[in-house]
Design a protein that fits this description.
Elements (H helix, E strand, L loop, with lengths): L12 H10 L8 E10 L3 H10 L4 E6 L18 E9 L4 H12 L6 E7 L3 H6 L5 E3 L3 E4 L11 E4 L12 H12 L6 E5 L5 H8 L4 E6 L2 H13 L6 E5 L9 E7 L2 H6 L1 H7 E13 L3 H8 L3 E3 L3 E3 L2 E8 L2
Parallel strand pairs: 6-7, 8-9, 8-11, 9-10, 11-12
Antiparallel strand pairs: 1-3, 1-4, 2-3, 5-6, 12-15, 13-15, 14-15
Helix pairs in contact: 1-3, 5-6
Length: 322
């Protein structure tokens, strides 16, 4: 599908005609027509705009190849290499006319596509039902705000899915949360380096840490972290800061960094320097084949524990030499 821009008004004349005919029907349907199209990361945005022009009431993008997608650099909106673009139309939309409009706009061959009828349902409820309380270790639970805590007397961290990466569903976050649950954090100072949603810093505070810092390169992540800290009643013990503004003279009892292997290697001098002698470091976001690279970078300063693993993802932890 060799296009990068949305076609001009002339090439979309048929599409506009079809769109107008779609919009004549304003009643709420009992079901919906959903169109799924395959795309790569260079096509997905253009397809989304085109489908909205053709009258789609909603367009979503999902991963077609189980590719992890992490918190993007500031100003970037990443997409998966293989993406499914799904557009929702009113049920009485003529699918043949819709395909004709797509061909008129982008030519042949069309991306691989198929239609399905989607029965109407309370979509907000359906989305919420996909997120359930999750337990990490013996004491710690991540609990969405709309559900009751399964164990009211446990350490319950209230957290909803959001823009910032990190709700505990990914193996990298889960392994860090399990480590925190098993650690003695009483009266300790903790830093969550690359905080995302702030889930690790907030969990540490709920589990007994005295004070925590959360830093990230993205201001959006710091806003999410502050909101989540307030929701969990720990905002008065949490300090949020952009990574570039982190003071050079700070040291911590526990250093958490759930990012990626490349940055972990590059940041080794800074992360090691943030850890007090005798303090502990927990590193994650590491694929199985990258474990030895991380060990080699950190074993000069830390006595490392056996590597933790969950599926294809590793956790490296250790204690800093005195």
């Amino acid at each position: 599908m060799p296009y990068t821009d949305i076609p001009d008004a002339e090439s979309l004349s048929l599409a506009i005609t079809v769109t107008r005919s779609f919009n004549l029907v304003l009643r709420s349907p009992m079901a919906w027509l959903q169109l799924h199209l395959s795309a790569d990361d260079t096509q997905a945005d253009s397809l989304q705009t085109l489908l909205e022009t053709l009258g789609a009431v909603a367009v979503t993008m999902t991963d077609a190849a189980d590719q992890p997608l992490f918190e993007p650099p500031l100003g970037e909106t990443p997409l998966w290499k293989s993406t499914i673009v799904s557009a929702l139309f009113q049920q009485d939309t003529n699918s043949d006319l819709l395909v004709q409009a797509l061909r008129s706009a982008i030519g042949d061959p069309l991306p691989t596509y198929h239609f399905e009828i989607l029965e109407d349902q309370p979509w907000e409820r359906a989305w919420m039902d996909t997120f359930h309380p999750m337990q990490f270790g013996e004491r710690l639970w991540i609990v969405p705000s709309w559900t009751a805590a399964p164990q009211p007397d446990a350490v319950n961290l209230r957290l909803d899915p959001g823009l910032a990466f990190g709700t505990g569903t990914h193996e990298t976050t889960a392994q860090c949360l399990e480590w925190l649950d098993g650690a003695n954090l009483k009266d300790k100072d903790v830093i969550d380096f690359g905080c995302g949603s702030g889930v690790l810093a907030i969990a540490a505070l709920l589990l007994g840490a005295k004070h925590a810092w959360a830093c990230d390169i993205d201001p959006q992540a710091l806003l999410a972290t502050q909101e989540n800290a307030q929701q969990n009643g720990v905002a008065d013990r949490l300090h949020c800061v952009l990574a570039r503004d982190l003071p050079n003279d700070l040291t911590f009892d526990v250093v958490l960094a759930n990012i990626l292997a490349g940055p972990l290697v590059e940041l080794q001098p800074q992360l090691s320097g943030l850890c007090k002698p005798g303090g502990e470091i927990v590193l994650s976001g590491i694929l199985a084949e990258q474990g030895e690279q991380i060990r080699a970078a950190y074993e000069q300063d830390f006595k490392l524990d056996p590597i933790g693993q969950k599926n294809d993802w590793l956790r490296v932890s250790g204690r800093k030499s005195a």
